[in-house]
Amino acid sequence: MHTNYNLPKDITNILNTNQRTDDNTFQELIRQGGYVPPHTDLLIDAISALSMGKNILLKGPTGAGKTKFAETLSNLFHQPMFNVNCSVDLDAESLMGFKTLAYEDGKQVIDFVPGPVTSAMNGGTFLYIDEVNMAKPETLPLINGVLDYRRTVTNPFTNEIITAEEGFNVIAAINEGYVGTVPLNEALKNRFIVIDVPYLEGEQLKELIQSNTRLTNNTIIDLFVTLSSDLIRSVAQGKLSEEAASIRALLDACDLSSIIPPKRAILRSIVDKLEEEREKEFVKNLADTLF
């Protein structure tokens, strides 16, 4: 396999053999990164794309673990990762950097402070663009050249042409259909390999709760796994918004449940984040049934 990175030898061996889904070494590497995928192929496909120098777009509901997925990839590749958090206020300075006054040999000079895009390109590291569809459509075309084979951008503040160092790559994340989001234009979307990130369920979710929260009571952990399954099913049926099934919120509830009663933990971590009273009552009824 052609690669642009110095991958750990054990990962390279896995990518080049058929020992992918049941390799114990690889499973341990996944756990070290912090993201346990519902299907190992998700991680294999993401690693394969990045090792070929391709950008990946993590698509999935809020709280499904997209950011943790990106952090795990950064850990596996031993690559630092610069972050861009998109919003309607995202502008060229937020991406590229800004000019500021500084002093050199007692004289006032204009200095340029690099932003996450220029820092990642110059350092040959990963760039993570979170909620990429929250940015204004006119902002992101600035980095189109960064995302294709050219791997270059003209810094609008210095007129410098920046070419990415070897090892630079882009991971982006997207929540589709949310208020404030806009559809990605085809030119931008075509620059990515898309990885669909579903909610964790069943044994994978149980393992995540055991390894990432303070909750140790296996009976209560099993009830939270069941609650999560019920919430995900209700979201799929249109009874709840995706926010109700956030794995991040569920982990918070599990943490709190190590100290306070589970139903109160669910109230603080999940129910009170919801906007509609109907949804709040629905989740409280689920919690009452289980706990």
From TrEMBL:
Protein name: MoxR-like ATPase
Record organism: Virgibacillus salinus
Pfam families: AAA_5 (PF07728)
Domain annotation ATPase dynein-related AAA: ranges: 55-192
GO MF terms held by the record: ATP binding; ATP hydrolysis activity
